[in-house]
Amino acid sequence: MTATRILTEPTPSTISVQELTRFCDDYLSADAFKDYAPNGLQVDGGRAIQRIVTGVTACEALIEAAIADKADAIMVHHGYFWKGEPAPITGMKGRRIRKLMQHGISMIGYHLPLDAHPRIGNNAKLAEMLGMTITGALYPNETHPVGNIATCPPQSAQKLIAQITQALGRVPLHISANYSAPNSTDANMEHNRLIERVGICTGGAQDMIEQAALMGCDAFISGEISERTTHIARELGIDYFACGHHATERGGIKALGDLIAQQFGLPVTFIDIDNPA
Fold first, then answer.
1. Residue range 114-122: average pLDDT?
2. Which backbone phi and psi does 131 adopt, to 5 degrees?
3. Share of the chain above pLDDT 70, in %
4. Which of 123, 138, 187, 223 has the greatest number of CB atoms lying within 10 Å of its CB?
5. Residue 28 to residue 45: CA distance in whole angstroms
């Protein structure tokens, strides 16, 4: 009698988009935030999820990469449907959403909840990369603070620049608190000021610099810089480091993807679409 052997391929792990969103909503306390865009499921691709791509922004390049990866879902920090933008799904937004729907790809986005999370949030991950310990909130009355205060071993601005460059792969724009106007009596003085207490809010939070100074921070780290930021830093005596909106917000969404991969046994791929801003 001849035995017949049947090889059975293992069934890939799957999860519904609703179950995945519920898990993330709960883990990130998404309902606790009054945000600029909806958090959670923004585009339902209509199929179960076996593969996930994560990235900072749901741009067309990320969608194309997800299609090539045969992903069923994209998870991002910057999604769609921002307050104040036109409602019609036309033009660039129409092309993006049409590609998602045509390929059955769901899109899930978390904005402020992913900035603020104390373990996998953007601020928390940036502080971790820079060897800093978060000790409090920039705005102490916030239950889920989107800006934080961290401490580090006393160090010069140049040493912190080197740490940021190594962690993020780009040199930050530094505005020194030690600025002296040309021809002033302080113009040639040596400054040995050390940084130990640091305000952190990733992305486009440059206007929190005044609050960081009010809270006694030696420096403030964010992503972007405005013309006014330079003068505020100099006049309030606080160092400012503009490290890139995109660069400072890679950590949270990557950490969320790692968590999902561990929790549900799904392949999750972080795709970094280069962005110098």
1. 98
2. 70, 30
3. 92
4. 123
5. 22
Q: At what angle do helices 60-68 and 91-102 cross, to 10 degrees?
A: 10
Q: Is the dihedral of CA 71, 73, 77, 81 positive or negative?
A: positive
Which run of H or E residues covers position 197?
A: strand 195-200
CA-CA distance, 163 to 152, in Å (whole number)?
12
Bridge-partner residues for 158, per DSSP?
none
Classify 168 as helix, strand or coil: helix
pLDDT tens for residues 1-60? 444 434 444 456 899 999 999 999 999 999 999 999 999 999 999 999 999 999 999 999
How much of the chain exceeds pLDDT 90, in percent? 90
Q: How many whole angstroms separate alpha carbon 202 and alpha carbon 218?
A: 17
pTM score of the predicted model: 0.92
Cα–Cα distance for residue pair 107/100, rounded to 1 Å: 8
Q: Is the confidence at residue 130, as pLDDT, over 70? A: yes
Q: Tell me the three state secondary structure of residue 155.
A: strand
Contact 104, 48 (CB under 8 A): no
Rounded to whole angstroms, the Cα distance separating 258 from 193 reads 38
Residue 218 has pLDDT above 80, yes or no: yes
Strands 148-155 and 133-137: antiparallel
Residues 215, 208: Cα–Cα separation, whole Å: 11
Torsion of CA 266, 267, 268, 269, to 10 degrees: -170
Instruction: Give me 156's structure tokens.
Output: 């010069």
Q: What was the pLDDT predicted at 10? A: 45
